[in-house]
Design a protein that fits this description.
By secondary structure, this protein is mostly beta strands. It contains no helices and eleven strands. The protein is globular, with a radius of gyration of 13 Å. The termini are far apart.
């Protein structure tokens, strides 16, 4: 069982930056950040595989967010720059085992709130 603990959320103004961290008891091959805003479905923000050479981003965050992982520290990061009010959501770290269906995740953190004021 993998345990994930997010940190780094907070309240910022539009245009500012935040870095989220996800400390894990163990990293799975696929790690991701997802978010859920009030009244909306949860959506994938960024995904990273293996050593970190393969990443994917939602169109809404491309060019502003960067996902990275430090396998030695068992930590995944999400650097968020030029934040916008529409980025306001609870951000979750998640991990997927190799045989799990794409789009599903086996492990979840408790979430960290990010609020961006205009």
């Amino acid at each position: 069982q993998v345990q994930l603990v997010e940190s780094g959320g907070g309240l910022v103004q539009a245009g500012e930056s935040l870095r989220l961290s996800c400390a894990a008891s163990g990293l799975t091959y696929v790690m991701a950040w997802l978010r859920q805003a009030p009244g909306k479905e949860r959506e994938s923000v960024a995904t990273i595989r293996g050593s970190g050479s393969s990443t994917d981003y939602a169109d809404s965050v491309k060019g502003r967010f960067t996902i990275s992982r430090d396998n030695a520290k068992k930590t995944v990061y999400l650097q968020m720059n030029n934040l916008k009010p529409e980025d306001t959501a609870v951000y979750y770290c998640a991990g997927r085992n190799p045989l799990t269906r794409i789009g599903s995740y086996d492990y979840w953190g408790q979430g960290t709130q990010v609020t961006v004021s205009s």
